[in-house]
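Exercise 7 asks you to align residues with C-alpha cells for two separate proteins.
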Amino acid sequence: MNNDPFSVIESPPPQFTPAEAVRICREFYGMIVDAAALVSERDQNFCLRGERGQTHILKIANALEDPLATEFQICALQHIAAQAASGIAVPEVMPALDGASQVILDKAGASHVARVVSWLPGAPLDESELAPATCKELGGWLARLDRMLAGFSHAGENQVLLWDMKRALELRRLLPHVGEPATRTLLSDTLDDFESRALPAFDSLRWQVIHNDANPDNVLAGPGGRIAGIIDFGDMLRSPLVVEVAVAAAYLRVLEGNPLALITELLAGYHAVNPLTRGEVDVLHELIKTRLATTVLILAWRASIRGAQDAYLKAAAAAEGSALSFLERLAEIPSTNARPIYSQVCASVERRP
C-alpha cells in the first residue's frame, strides 16, 4: 500500500485514449459506445454514450491508487443500492461480462483498476446560484446518506488521501508554494487552529464512512432545483462524521452579506435528519476553515508541479477561485461567536414539532 498522500497527485493520471476506452467497453462489458474524456484530479474518466442514447461513465484509477480503495468505493455504492427505499440516487456499478465489478487494465507497464458506473441525470449545483432551500435539502440528503453508511465497513476505508481531514497537518509542507505572505500566514494560522481546537476532540467524536466531497460539482439538481443525486465517491473514507458537514459547508460561499447564511441552512437540514452532538458542533467552524485551507494549499502546490496547462487545475481554479476569499471572511468570525450560532440552529430544529 502507498502511504504517501502526495504521490498519487504527483503521478500523472492514466493516459488511455478515447479509442482505447471504446475497445475496453466492448471487450470487457459488451458495450458499443462512443467515449469522450472528462476532467479528473488523479484518475481518468470517460463519458460513454451507447447506440440507444444510454450513458455511462468509465472510471480508470491512477496506477498508484490502492486497488483496495477502488474496491471500497464499489462496495459502498452496492451497499447504498441495496437499500432501495432510501430515496438517495447514486451511481450504479455495472457488471462486466464475467460478472466482475471491476477490471484490470495494463498500459505502459502499469496496472489500473477500472469500472463502469451509470450516469445520473441532473445538472451540477455549481451551474446555478445556490438557494437557501437547496442548501437545506442538501443537508438532509447528506444526513440520509450518512445514516445508510453508518453500518458500512471495508478494509479500504482508510485510504491514503490528500483530502483526508485527519491528515490536514501534513499540508504544512505545502505552505512554501503559496507566494503571498499574508495568505501563507492565514493558511498557517488555520492549520494551527485545527491542531489546537479541533484535532484533540477527534477521539471523542463519532466516526464512520462518509462521502467526504459534497462539493457542488458532485451534487446534481433536477427540475425546480431539487437535489437529484450525489456522484463521485472517490474521496470517501472513514472519518469523524461531522467532517461530512464541514466539507459540504466549505462550498456554500457567501461573499457579501452574512457569510454563514447558507452554512446554517445546510446544518439545519442535516441536523433534522441525523442530529449532531454538541462536541461535533463545537469543532465545525474550525473544520470548515480547514477544508478551505486545504483547497487553497493543494491548488497552489498542484500549480507548481503540473503547470498552468493542467486541465484539472484550470477547471479547479475557475471553480475554487472564491475559496481564499471565503476563508478570509470566516477567519473574521471567532469560534466563540460561531459556535453559539451553530448551536442555536440545531436547537431551533429540535424545538420544531
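Second protein for Exercise 7:
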Amino acid sequence: IPPIGTGLAVGPSGEIGISWGGGLPNTIRFKKSLDGGNTWPATSAVVDNNVQPVNDYYDGISHPISFSAQFTSLATDISGGAYNGNIYCVWDDIRNGVDNADIFLARSTDGGTTWSTQRINDDFTTRNQVVPTVAVDPTSGWVYVSYLDARLNTDTFDDTLNYYVAWSNDGGLTFHN
C-alpha cells in the first residue's frame, strides 16, 4: 500500500511536520524537516502501529467511510504557552470493533520522536466516528478535533452523520466532546 492521507503542520520554529498512513501495514508515520522542507530525515517516527483500517467490503457492501482510516490530520501548538511545540495527529480506525470506527489522537511532546495515543470520541455506542481533523488555537493552545459521528443513529443501516467537536485545554491530555 503506498503512503496516503498526509497531514501537514508547521511548528513554532518553522519546522515542517508530515504524517501519513499506508506504506507499512497498520502504521501511522511522521517526519520533520528543519529547513523549510529542503531536506528530510531518511527514517520516520512511528506515531502508532496498531491502526486497524476499515476494510472497503467488511460486510459485503462498499462503505463511503472506508477511505478515511488511512488519512491523517496534523497540528502543532505554536501558542508560546505551556504546551508550545506539542504535535497532534488524528485518524479513525476500527481497533475497537469492525462496525465501530473511533477517533484516535496521538500526541508528541518531544518534537515527534515519541507518541502516545488515546481515543477521542466519548460515546459508548458501536456506531462509527470518522474523518477527523485537528487544529490548535495559535493563541490559547487549545486543541480541537472535529469529526463525523453516527452515535445518534438507532438503525444499523442509517448513514446519518452529525458533526462533533472535541476540545482540550490541557495539551491533549483530556478531551470534552
